[in-house]
Amino acid sequence: MNISKLSTKELQDLVVRIPDELNKRKLQEKTKLLDEITQIASKRGYTIKELIGKAPISAKGKKAGTKARARKLVPVKYRDPQHPNLTWTGRGRKPRWVTEWLAKGKKMEALAV
Length: 113
Fold this sequence. Notes:
The protein is mainly alpha-helical. It is 43% helix and 4% strand. A hairpin with a 7-residue loop joins strand 1 (78-79) and strand 2 (87-88).
């Protein structure tokens, strides 16, 4: 691919798409490698856990063989009046839109749902 003939817009599009593609391919390679290692261990009568002492982290970031726990939904407590899709439960770090709201001297009560 000759990138010198691409437009600025096309180059910017590539800059956005390349990291996503790289991450996708790394994940695929990790998954494939984990499957290969698991098969080799299985052929010799072992599990990965027996070999390394703990369950391996799968390519999806979870320990192999663990079940996903259902998360409880936390109700929304605050909503941006100008952008209703921006919400916050009141847990964790304050979103940027909340800190900007407060920096303008406005009150949290005005954002309450």
